[in-house]
Amino acid sequence: MNAIKYPKSFSHIGITVPDIHKAVKFYEDIMGWYVIMKPSTVKKEKETAIGQMCIDVFGEAWETFEIAHMSTSDGIGIELFSFPHGIKEEPEFNPFNTGLFHFCIQDPDIENLTKKIVENGGKQRMPIREYYPNEKPYKMVYVEDPFGIVFEIYTHSYELTYSSGAYQE
After folding, report:
1. CA-based diameter of the chain, in Å?
2. What share of the chain is helix, strand, coil (3-state, %, to 5)?
3. Are 140 and 114 in contact (CB under 8 A)?
């Protein structure tokens, strides 16, 4: 079979948080993401498609969870989950192990967004850095939300940032 090769688009990311209402408020107020489905409860049952899908994904060892759906300005979905019996502590930061390390958002006002994140319970993990000091205005920083989820902020698009060879001398 000859498949046409093309880059697949990014649809959404699922994030587990300790308190879905606080997470929705943080991401709506600080990140400006749109709420497209307010927090709701999903119960384990086999009578609906969503109930069966959740059993397929999570197995039988759950009874209920909360879910909310949000969207970025460019239509990328943010699916928030909160499980009542899940660990509510910040995840351990370990980028060296296999698995999701971080996600990245883009905002040209990186300084103000970073400040708002910190003022609202998050953390700044490093100084804001420039990829091309005194040459191009491409900046980045790693931060955490109030729940310990690590993400990165870029001032410019991924393509612009790396098309000039950010790691070349």
Report:
1. 61
2. 20, 30, 50
3. no
Nearest CA among 130, 129, 128, 135 for reference residue 112: 128
Q: Which two tokens stand for residue 95?
A: 């980028």
- Cα 78 to Cα 44: distance, rounded to the nearest angstrom: 22
Backbone angles phi, psi at 111, to 5 degrees: -65, -45
Tokens of 123: 């953390």
Between CA 60 and CA 150 the distance in angstroms is 29
Alpha-carbon span 77 to 36, nearest angstrom: 9
Strand partners, 123: 144
Give the predicted TM-score (pTM) of the model. Answer: 0.90
Taking only the tens place, the pLDDT of each residue in 68-126 is 999 999 999 999 999 998 888 888 889 999 988 999 999 999 999 999 999 999 999 99
The answer to whether 51 and 71 have CB atoms below 8 angstroms apart is no
Which of 100, 110, 103, 115 lies closest to 140 in space, CA to CA?
Answer: 110
Task: Say how far apart CA 114 and CA 129 lie, in whole Å.
Answer: 12
Residues 90 and 24: beta-carbon distance below 8 Å: no
